[in-house]
Design goal:
alpha/beta, Rossmann fold, SIR2/SIRT2 'Small Domain', six-stranded parallel β-sheet, three-stranded antiparallel β-sheet, elongated, binds adenosine-5-diphosphoribose
Length: about 240
């Protein structure tokens, strides 16, 4: 099974990767929909939506401060590191992630496209001022003196993805000879459509211990964890 993945990656020039929260599960961060997932204990619309933020910005920031703190305590997994080791092998390598935990960047990946934003800084809805989230968002500083409000630089449900990031990811998927889909349930669009609609000419492999919404549509669906597969692939490619 993995032989074909190694063979395809050894001859490819253009690779596109899409990751989801599953690749950070091995860093100790909860996924959204799996067992113990964040959406099991919180209601999506209350937290990750413009309406939820409007209704209770303190609740929303309390939740993001907790997640931001967890990101700070987490370390890149063997899978994050394997992707960083793979990247220099290819003249054209794009890592599109749905994750906001910055772990791909901390692992050393360079060409990372953060489709859903990140938790490194907040931005004022009024004047665009930014605030570093290195130590979280002080709840007493959410309201900005300009009359605006600091919000996380996260793409919420119902919001469009940032145009630049989406275009970079969609173009990379369309160019890709090999597309890897790692640790995502592939339920959230348009990110999931990178594999199903944009990577028309690519050979697509998925790495996920469970079946997903796109398992039947990809060329190879590996039922394993990201670290197991990617560490093996890197070892066999001699990356
Ligand atoms: N290795 C690989 N995959 C794993 C691992 C692992 N060790 N552990 C869990 N997974 C898989 C799960 O089987 C699941 O299919 O990771 C996937 C996580 O899916 P979700 O929890 O739905 O997370 P994700 O796909 O990233 O969600 C997409 O939805 O909530 C929004 O904006 C949020 O970016 C998020 C988007």
């Amino acid at each position: 099974m993995i032989d074909e993945l190694v063979r395809r990656l050894s001859s490819a020039r253009s690779v596109c990767v899409l990751t989801g929260s599953g690749i950070s599960a091995e860093s100790g961060l909860p996924t959204f929909r799996g067992v113990g997932g964040l959406w099991r204990t919180h209601r999506v619309e209350q937290l990750a939506s413009p309406a939820g933020f409007e209704r209770d910005p303190v609740l929303v920031w309390t939740w993001y401060n907790e997640r931001r703190a967890a990101h700070g305590q987490a370390s890149p997994s063997a899978a994050h590191r394997a992707l960083a080791a793979l990247e220099p092998r290819y003249p054209d390598f794009t890592l599109a992630t749905q994750n906001v935990d910055s772990l791909h960047l901390r692992a050393g990946s360079k060409n990372v496209v953060e489709l859903h934003g990140n938790l490194r800084e907040a931005r004022c809805t009024g004047c665009g001022a930014t605030y570093s989230l290195e130590r979280g968002m002080p709840l007493e500083r959410i309201e900005h003196e300009c009359g605006g409000r600091f919000r996380p630089q996260i793409v919420w449900f119902g919001e469009a993805l940032p145009q630049r990031e989406w275009t970079l990811a969609a173009d990379a998927a369309m160019r890709a000879e090999v597309m890897l889909v790692i640790g995502t349930s592939a339920m959230v669009h348009p990110a999931a459509s990178l594999a199903t609609r944009y990577a028309r000419d690519a050979w697509i492999a998925e790495v996920n211990p469970e079946a997903t919404a796109i398992s039947d549509a990809v060329d190879l669906s590996l039922r394993a964890t990201a670290s197991e597969i990617l560490s093996d692939v890197v070892a066999r490619l001699g990356a």
